[in-house]
Design a protein that fits this description.
This protein has 611 residues and is an alpha+beta fold. The chain is built from 17 helices and 26 strands. Strands 2-7-5-6-3-4 form a 6-stranded mixed sheet. It has a 5-stranded mixed sheet with strand order 12-20-16-18-14. It is globular, with a radius of gyration of 26 Å.
């Protein structure tokens, strides 16, 4: 190991003002992370971002065109050090003792310059950087693949069992090719002729309500048997990891509460309607009901059916403290397709569902490995050879991985185009329904789009929301969208005081067709959302959208949720939010009254994600 001062390895550059810049596609970073996108750059290449004021631990790596503001330095490296290696090294240091600020945490160039850095040879740095970046890339890739696979599986379910275009006897879409439909009095709509409506318990009668063993007996816990709670279900198709474990003694104290691998776990108390598969023999707490399927062909169908049921039916109360007892759960009305269609659906989806599970298990192992390897490699406690041996135990051969990356590129590109088209339709629907709203402008559109995405539609359509002063904002989509629709003259913008009003263009009629990408029920719910904010100024949707985001973030992070914590998160979102301090509690009350309550869907909305 050789010792250096950090100033011997990098050159630190100041960020600068950006008020003169226009919107573009170059990331703009501050110490809190990604702020926006602009049309110019300060540097193009590999840089390490070092906070000057604010969040001093938010050290990041970036490669490409970038602009930083004056709260964030950007540092270029010389030939003595690998940039990604140095980023990893700096990210595990505790730099709080170098804080020179009084009220606002601050770092000077000299404080960074004088840090002592111990480096192995450049070749070793490169190898270590490759190991860590490959791990990060693989974890990210698995996540993207799973998102795509889940989206495709959900699309197939909707096509077969919502639009009723499952393959008929001639392998043609049933309803679109004249398949006979019959009105069902219970559901108040048509279903394919010959299909039935039954109670859930009549389709699968083995429904188990969980229970927590006595918490007074410590010997009942910290064993090896998964104990599933609400947080373990949230955001997962397969529950591959639980926060709590039972001992054999604890689990055997309630033998009738065991559920097998593949059982469908559904949250029914507090947060109602999250659905996932158990990935091994487990037990659950009393907040979950579990369906143990005796018939394999029902498993995937019921998984998606229950997701839709809680999303669209009256069972979705929007109340974080709602309850559904076992009797109500067992009595859920379920459309029962014919057995042949169910078997065909299950066989079609099996490999996809299995692959999602494989990827989740691999990511669990890779994340554990990365968290262990990062400090061990930096400190020289683990050799590169040992790290590569560990990596080989949990990941597929490198040749297969490289091949997969190339194949997935075209699939991802195709899906991104499909996602953009669907969101373009959704955005246009929001605008078309709001054209007679005298207060409809850019900010209101952005917040309605966020709420439509996260509260109503809840589908992965490539959303990339980040924190902006006015609330959640998906700049990547919004910028590209308006470039297209303004050029096509679907709409135009008119400045009216502080309002950037969106109005109908000469070709607005071309924006109306939804092409069946969203169900009428979804569009009706979007319209109901729009009407709740009609003719209100931009501040109301800004407050509600931001509160929804911080509330949802806490759910996704499995953090405590109280009104005081939500208020704190809201005020910490951006310094400008202080002007709404007297309106937050009223907004929370309004959200509950109008059932605009998050359920933990989507991604955490942050100021930035580390590169």
């Amino acid at each position: 190991m050789n010792s250096f001062k950090l100033k011997d390895l990098i050159k630190i550059h100041n960020g600068t003002k950006y008020s003169h810049l226009q919107s573009g596609n170059v990331p703009l970073y501050g110490s809190g992370g990604l702020m926006s996108y602009v049309n110019a750059f300060l540097y193009d290449g590999e840089v390490i971002l070092l906070p000057r004021k604010g969040t001093l631990s938010n050290i990041m790596y970036f490669n490409g065109k970038i602009w930083t503001v004056d709260t964030m330095y950007y540092a270029t490296t010389n030939q003595k050090v690998n940039p990604y290696y140095l980023y990893c090294y700096l990210s595990i240091l505790n730099l709080k003792h170098l804080d020179s600020g009084s009220t606002l945490p601050s770092m000077t160039k000299s404080a960074y310059d004088n840090l002592e850095i111990k480096l192995p040879s450049l070749d070793t740095q490169q190898i270590i950087a490759n190991v860590l970046s490959n791990l990060d890339t693989k974890i990210e890739l698995n996540g993207k693949i799973n998102q795509e696979l889940e989206t495709m599986a959900k699309m197939l379910y909707d096509y077969w069992f919502v639009q009723f275009d499952f393959p008929d006897k001639n392998s043609k879409p049933y309803k679109s090719n004249g398949g006979k439909m019959a009105y069902n009095e219970e559901l108040k709509h048509d279903i394919p002729k010959g299909w039935e409506v039954k109670k859930l318990v009549e389709i699968e009668n083995n429904i188990i309500t969980g229970k927590t063993p006595s918490t007074k007996k410590h010997e009942y816990f910290n064993g090896e048997i998964p104990f599933i709670c609400i947080g373990d279900v949230r955001g997962n198709m397969h529950i591959v990891k639980t926060e709590m474990l039972l001992s054999g003694l604890g689990a055997n104290s309630q033998e009738n509460k065991f559920i097998p691998k593949g059982a469908i776990c559904v949250t029914c108390i507090a947060t109602v309607g999250l659905v996932a598969f158990a990935s091994e023999n487990s037990q659950t707490n009393q907040q979950l009901n579990t369906i143990v399927c005796n018939n394999f062909e029902n498993r995937y169908y019921l998984y998606f059916y229950l997701q839709n049921y809680f999303k669209f039916s009256n069972a979705k109360t929007g109340n974080t403290f709602a309850n559904m007892n076992k009797g109500d759960f067992s009595s859920i009305k379920v459309i029962k397709p014919n057995e042949k269609t169910l078997i065909n659906f299950s066989e079609t989806l099996k490999s996809t569902i299995d692959q999602i599970y494989i990827n989740l298990k691999e990511n669990e192992q890779l994340s554990k490995l990365r968290d262990w390897l990062l400090p061990m490699l930096m400190n020289g406690q683990v050799t590169v050879k040992q790290a590569e041996e560990q990596l080989a135990m949990v990941a597929e051969p490198q040749a297969v991985y490289k091949k997969e990356k190339i194949v997935k590129l075209s699939i991802s590109q195709e899906l991104e185009e499909k996602h953009f088209l669907k969101r373009k339709i959704l955005a246009s629907y929001i605008i078309n329904q709001s054209l007679n709203d005298s207060q409809f402008g850019d900010v209101k559109f952005e917040k309605l789009l966020h709420l439509a995405d996260y509260y109503v539609i809840q589908r992965n359509l490539g959303q990339k929301y980040f924190k902006k002063a006015a609330g959640p904002y998906d700049n990547t989509f919004t910028y590209a969208y308006f470039q297209q629709v303004l050029k096509a003259k679907w709409y135009y913008k008119e400045r009216l005081g502080n309002l950037n009003r969106i109005k109908a263009g000469v070709n607005q009629s071309k924006s109306i067709n939804t092409y069946g990408h969203f169900s009428q029920e979804e569009l009706n719910q979007v319209n109901e959302l729009i009407n709740k904010f009609k003719n209100s100024n931009y501040q109301i949707p800004e407050i509600i959208s931001t509160l929804y985001a911080v509330w949802n973030n806490r759910m996704l992070k499995k953090q405590a949720i109280t009104d005081e914590l939500l208020k704190e998160d809201f005020l910490n979102w951006d310094k400008q939010k202080i002007k709404y301090i007297d309106r937050i509690q009223r907004a929370l009350t309004w959200m509950r009254e109008n059932k605009i309550i998050p359920n933990g869907w989507g991604n955490v909305i942050e100021k930035a994600t580390k590169k």
